Structure formats: C-alpha cells, structure tokens
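Forum: Protein Structure Q&A
Topic: Joint prediction for protein chains with partners

I've read a bunch of threads here and the consensus seems to be that you should model interacting components together rather than docking separate models afterwards. I'd like to see that in practice. Below is the full input, 527 residues plus whatever partners are listed. Could one of the regulars post the assembled result?
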Amino acid sequence: MDLGNLISIVIGAIFINNFVFAKFLGICPFMGVSKKVESSIGMGMAVAFVMTLASAITWLVYNFLLEPFGLQYLQTIMFILIIASLVQFVEMAIQKTSPNLYKALGVFLPLITTNCAVLGVAILNIQEGFNFIETIINSFAVAVGFTLALVLLAGIRERLEYADVPRPFQGVPIAFVSAGLLAMAFMGFAGMQI
Amino acid sequence: MGAIIIPILILGGVGLVMGLFLAFASKKFEVEVNPNVEKIMEVLPGINCGACGFPGCAGYAEAIALEGAEITACAPGGGSVVEAIGGIMGMTADTSGEKIVARVACQGDKTRVEKLYDFDVELKSCATAMLYFGGDKSCWHSCLGYGDCAGVCPVDAIEITEGGIAKVDEDKCVSCGKCASECPKRVINMVPQSQKVTVCCSSREKGAVARKNCSVACIGCGICQRACPVDAVHVKNNLAKIDVEKCIECGLCAIKCPTKAITNTSREIKKAEVIEEKCIGCTACGRVCPVDAIEGAVKEKHKVIEEKCIGCQLCYDKCKFNAIKINVTEKTD
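Posted by a regular:
Agreed with the consensus. Here's the joint model:
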C-alpha cells in the first residue's frame, strides 16, 4: 500500500477534483440542504456513509459477480439497485436514531438515491481501476469534499440572510451566484499534481 | 440461452438479497408513531383545506396528539368531528355554534350589469381581470365571475351561474373561508347559514352612480334602515349592512328595498294568529306591528290581517298573555 498514492487520491478527491465544484455532480442536495450549517453537516455525514458503503459493495459486486461473467453492461442498473437499497436503509436508521436530523433533511434524504454524485463515484472507482482499499479511501474522500462544499456554501448563505441583496436575486439566485464564485475559487487547484 | 440465465440470476439474486436486508432492517429500526395520530386522522374529514391553520389533516392530527393543539379548529368537520376527537383524546369541548357559510354579496349578473370591454385573454381569471381597470364590469365592486373562488373551494361548493356570477351551495360549504380570501373584490362574506336576509350588494358608490352601473344595486337610500323595527340595518359608505346579532329576519327591509338589493331566502312563511280566548284587547301588539296587520279596538278581541302579516314575530314577543301564536308553513313555489 503506497501511502503517497493514497494521500494523492485524498487530496485529489477533496480539492482538485471536488465533485461539486469541479465535476458539478450532486448539485440538488448541495443547493437544497445548504441553508443551515447544521443540516449541511448532517447531510454530509449521511452522504459519506452511503457513498463509502455503496462504493465498497458495488466494487465487490462488479469484480466478483459482473466481471467474471462478462456482465459489465449490467453495471449501471446493478449499481442503482444497490445504492437505492442502501439509501432506504440509511433513511430508516436516521429516522430511528435522530428524528430531528430526519426532519431537517426532509425530502433530500431519499434524493441521495438519485444523487449522481453517489453513482458517479461508484462508476469512477471502476473506471480508474482502483483496488478495494483505494476505492474505500477515494469514496470517503469524495464525501468529505462534498461535505466541505456543502458547509462552505451553508456558511455563506447564512451570512447572506443579513446582506442587502437586490429583490430579483434574493433566495436561490444569489446562492447559485455564490456557488459559481466558489467553483471559480476552487479552479485554483486545477492542474495540481501531488 | 445460457447467456440470459446468468445475468437474470445475478441481477435477481442481488435484488432478492437487498430486499431481504431491507425487510430485516425495517423491523429492527421500527419507529413508534403515536397511535393517537392515526386514530385522529381517521376521524378528520381528510380534505386538507388548511382552515385549521396546520399543514393538512395529517399536520393537524399530529399537532393535537403531540403538541396539544385545540380540538375545535376543524371547520369542515364541525361538531361531530370535535366530539370524535374529544373521544380519542379524552377531552370535551363546546360544540355549540351555528354553521357559518360563504355568501356572495352580489347579484350583478349579465342581465343587470354591462361589460365595459371584451376580456379576451388566454388566462381568464378574476385576479388577472383586476389588473385591467379592476375588472370588465360596469360596477367596480361586483363579482367578476371568472371563478377564482370556485377553483380554490376544496369541496366544489361554488358554481358560476349562467349570468356569470359566483353562487355558493350552502349545504356543501364547509366554512373554510378560502373563497373569501381568494376573491380579489372581497364580495364573499362569511355569515351564519341561518341568516336568511342578506344585503346582496357590495357597491359603495353613491346612489345615482350605483343605479346606473347595476339595476339591483344598493343605492344607500336608507329606506331599509328606517323600516327595520329593531334597528339592525345601517347604511354606511352608501351600502346597507345588516347586524346579524340584532336581525329578527322579519324581511321588512327586503320588502321595502326599492332596488331589491336585499334578498330574503327564507323558505318559511310565518303568519301570526291571535288566540281569541287569551286576548284581552290591550292593543300592545297592534302598536308594535310594523305593517299594521293587527286590528282591534281596546278591550276587544284583536285579529291579524293575514295578507299584511310578514311574520316578524314582534307581536308574539310583545304579548304578555301568550295570546299570539305563529303558524309556519313552507314556501311551495
């Protein structure tokens, strides 16, 4: 296990190839849950759990069930099946353990199912040809990057509540503009090689 | 053949495993829902009108069971629902009070009011008509008749008549008040259903102008105010208004109104009758009668002239000897 390799995967996933700012995946929960920092952290943790577990299981299924039988074409539907089941499970678990978080996340929790970021990271792991450990580390790092993006925007949006925003821009429009500016800032990491 | 079997088995197998996993998890992570919430939801009407102030019937059920909200807030449910909820939660509440219904205070249909312009747009609604000089009818205060109220009524109790104004079916009405808030002209009032005499006009214009705009408008002449035996009608801003607390529904104002702006929808015909054995001839009833329908000299038995009697019951209230009875019959027309 090359530690340097793992670190470069982590830095890459969080900053250089941030799923929200560089790849524009997972925008829906990104805009929907980022009104408050608290719910953003909760959402980030839920996504982290789903992403890591989903990537692990999908990697196993791909390499031991699909590839040996030459069924790579079933990749998409199999991954979606696994992700959907996992999200259902996470929803049940959160409803039981933390009803407040459940209410705060609301409809965005089941939306993690169709969140392209989760499917994206699962497919990306296969594309990059990662081994099992690399897959898990990568997925967790992507989730951390996603949470970072969420928390950053939530912090900005909480401050925007008190700012003097012109009427046509109040609410979602100014949030999108801010997100775009954040993405431009993250462009500064582009092309870095660790 | 074999090429199909294996994918089916694998996909099906994974699906089955996931399904079993979820079934197991749903048992292990079961959340306890307060059983009262379910019970209350069953007795609520389920039309989700929001009149209670909570988000839908589910929201209200939760508020009652978990947050101790008032059990009397459901207007459509009425007394029976309040009692049912009281039974579940072990509370009692005051269920008296009459049914309030919505009533459109306008008779200005197309036979009585002119159209000022041709409102030929794609989206015809009262709210959009308001943007064009406050509507296309010659009376500014009238019902526009494009059905915004009917659209928002959760029980479809409002229809737009042939003449083009809104009419509420009071038996279907559940008193949620949505039509009254939706109407941009504010011509819909919430009144007790038992109040049969209504001023069916909302025009605040001066007499001559109001009359020119609509043939059955209230011209603010005040004849009703002078005719009312109990001082329940007052003219304010050129519009008559009936105080429902004082009104005895004698219908005199409706009879005397020169433009027929006040309507009386009572289906009952009440006639007073003197019980001869008890009458002592004190003439008190004759003096209080607003239409002079009782004749009889002092110390002689009195008699009610049936054709003149309007059934206001003022004589009945006045007679100290219980010598008057009221005969009630249903209108047959």
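Residues 37-66 of chain A form the longest helix (30 residues).
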